[in-house]
Fold this sequence. Notes:
Number of helices: 24
Distance between the termini: 77 Å
Helix content: 55-70%
Radius of gyration: 26 Å
Amino acid sequence: xxxxxxxxxxxxxxxxxxxxxxxxLGLSDxxxxxxxxxxxxxxxxxxxGNWVLPVNNGGExxxxxPFFHWCIAAVSFLNNNQVTEATSRxxxxxxxxxxxxxxxxxxxxxxxxxxxxxxxxxxxxNFELHRAGVNCRVDMVLTALTVIALYSFYRWYEKGLKGVPxxxxxxxxxxxxxxxxxxxxIPCLVTGVxxxxxxxxxxxxxxxxxxxxxxxxxxxxxxxxxxYQQGGKAFLDLILEENVGRMTNTMSYDSCVNPWYYNxxxxxxxxxxxxxxxxxxxxxxxxxxxxxxxxxxxxxxxxRIAKMESFDLFALTAIAVIFVFYCxxxxxxxxxxxxxxxFIAYFLAKYILHLSKKHIKVLKLYGGILAxxxxxxxxxxxxxxxxxxxxTIFHGRHAGDNIDFLHAxxxxxxxxxxxxxxxxxxxxxxxxxxxxxxxxxxxxxxxVVITMGLYLSLDGAYQPAVLNAKSDKPTAxxxxxxxxxxxxxxxxxxxxxxxxxxxxxxxxxxxFYIGNRIGDxxxxxxxxxxxxxxxxxxxxxxxxxxxxxxxxxxFYKAKKRGCDVKQIAEIYKFSKE
Length: 577
């Protein structure tokens, strides 16, 4: 791959990144609470003109700052002001692609095309980043801005800290406008630790980074001030809860609470399928004895750090600092660790190229496993397609959902779908022929090709079929037809919200698909309208509301359990004496 120039490799990488991600963004309907919850904010911005702090989902202000929502609105503006699944996921996809190509250019000029290109493809094809890159959540945009800010800070270091790191400041500013002050804190913290490891005086390093961080907060500060003017104490309480409370474990409600070792598990699972290659290769390593005496161990560590190449130390510092940083809060999610993934990809690329020269059998074994998975996936598809799996094998609460998924795969068809289903199978068969040639220089990239084949099949064929069977979009379509705009107000009630002070559950997907029309029944206590409620909540709470003078007449019942409230949705027409 060194025969490729950086320019040619850049265009190759960009084209592959675009054509393996962008075409599939709109194929899957919203099927979790997170995506429509973010998308509806942009919908409200476009429909009301409030770009600072719009109110959504019956009285809720957004939990995150607005940059991500502005991006969705900008893309949707080009789509005739229509917020869709594709336009709402586009900012995440652009963030992933931008991070990949910027990382390639950064590494290509310092480490060569082979390492840079392989690291870029590994970044593009690990599970956690790929999933976030096709999702309508703020995390991928935050990750891209954080990583690019870190690259910019390293360039600043290479120049002897001369001038102003404007790219880093702008990226941190936008990152803070995406998810809060952590967008500035992480890049400054990583760079500060790196400068200390390189022997810089603490106060000098602190002063430089404090000024850069302060500059990055100017624009977000203007938004926070404007948002406070609109939201007042409710906005301030939310900001303190989401930023200070989450980091200090003082939130008024539990949010993604996980033990300390969760980060180790999620890092391993998030780097699928490449984590499997690392596990297989462990049997080929030659282990050296380590002097465990504290003083000797410490001196050895300092000596290794002093001799380490600068960017290797910077990348390792980023991995260690960010990982440790997110071990302290009780609130832990897999996406929090995503900024370390491109730096892991760099070390992994170097390791794979080493294996291709010293232990090529490891790559062949790993490729053989991927090829076997590809063939097994197609065989399973044929078995399901022929109706050979009986519904009776599914039991329990989720049996209905699993049966729906089974039927969704059975109904998959069309020329394009078959091409995508067959693609990893053909690549798997080709692998058995290609791997016998033992071309060490290109074998790592052959692994990338077969990995991308699996992703294309999942993104373009299997995933849309399965996830659309889970979505509430058909229910929303029924509701929009039965109660069109202007024919009655719709209110929602979810009993779960009575026992929590934050992170409320609502009919997010239904609300998005019917145009943000669902108000909050419990808070507003309207005189008449339509009540959207879960079947179980209706049995328990409608008699209580009837004691207040309400009368409920059954109007509609969904065909399956909802993806947000996890109950079968019902609608009642109500009035109050």
